[in-house]
Amino acid sequence: MARKATSTATLALLAVAMLAGTGCQTAQGPALGFLGMPIPISPYFQRKKEDEHWMHERYDRVAILPPIAEGGQATGLDPPSDDQVMRAIEDIHPTAKGWPFLHEVQISNVRIVKEKTQDGIDKPRVYPLIGPAQLHHVHYKCTVYFTKTTRVGWPIPHTLIDEEVIEVVHIDKDHFHMVGNVDPNGGG
C-alpha cells in the first residue's frame, strides 16, 4: 500500500512539474526583480563609448596588406581622413568638453593641408602573430587652419574669437606587407 501511495505521489508531482513547465511561464526567463529594470545612461557616456569603438574600428588597427609585386612601386596607404585629423585636433582643443552657456568652444572655417613626410619600407622579418612581413612607414604632417570661438557666459558674458589658429598634427599610417620568404638565400 505504501508503494502504491509513493508512486501516485510521484506521478502527481511529475504532472504538476510538466504543467508548470509549459507555456508562457518559462518563456519570459528568470525573474530578476529590480535588476530587470532598464538603467538610464547619460548621453555623455554613451557618446564616449561610441567614440572609443569608432577609433578602435577605424584607426587603432594596423593593416596587413598582400605582398609587394616584384619590381613594383610600394606606395603608402591613403592620406589620413579629415575625421582622423579633426579627432587628433580635438585632443589638443577639447571642443565638446565645455559647459553649455558657461564656457563653450567652437571650431569653424577649417582648412586641412596634408603632406607626406616619410614613406619607406623596412627589411623583411618575422613578427609574432603575423609571420614574415615588412613594415611600411608612412608619416603625414597635417597642418590645420581654423577659427576658434570661445563663449564665456559667467560671471561676465563675453566672446573671444581667434581667427588665425594654426595647429600641426603628425599622423602615422604604418602598415604591414606580407612576405613569402624572409631568408634571402632561399632556405626556409
Tell me about this structure.
With about 190 residues, this protein is α+β, with helices and mostly antiparallel strands. The chain has a domain at about 80-180. The protein has 4 helices and 6 strands. It has helices at about 1-20, 25, 45-60, 80-90, and strands at about 65, 105-120, 125, 130-150, 160-170, 175-180. Strands 1, 2, 3, 4, 5 and 6 form a 6-stranded mixed beta sheet that branches. The longest helix is centred in the first third of the chain and has 19 residues, at about 1-20. The mean pLDDT is about 85.
CA radius of gyration: 31 Å
The succession of helices and strands, N to C, reads HHHEHEEEEE
- Runs in which pLDDT lies below 50 for 5 or more consecutive residues are none
Strand fraction equals 25-35%
Helix content: 25-40%
Give the number of DSSP strands.
Answer: 6
Mean pLDDT: 83
> Biggest sheet, open or closed, and with what strands and sense?
6 strands, mixed
What's the helix count? 4
Structural class, please? alpha+beta
Instruction: Using the alpha-carbon principal axes, give the shape.
Output: flat
Query: What is the CA–CA distance across the termini?
Result: 83 Å
Secondary-structure blueprint of this entry?
Elements: H1 2-20, H2 24-27, H3 43-58, E1 64-65, H4 82-92, E2 103-121, E3 125-127, E4 131-152, E5 158-172, E6 175-178
Summarize the structure.
The protein is an alpha+beta fold and 188 residues long.
Notable characteristics:
4 helices; about 190 residues; six-stranded mixed sheet
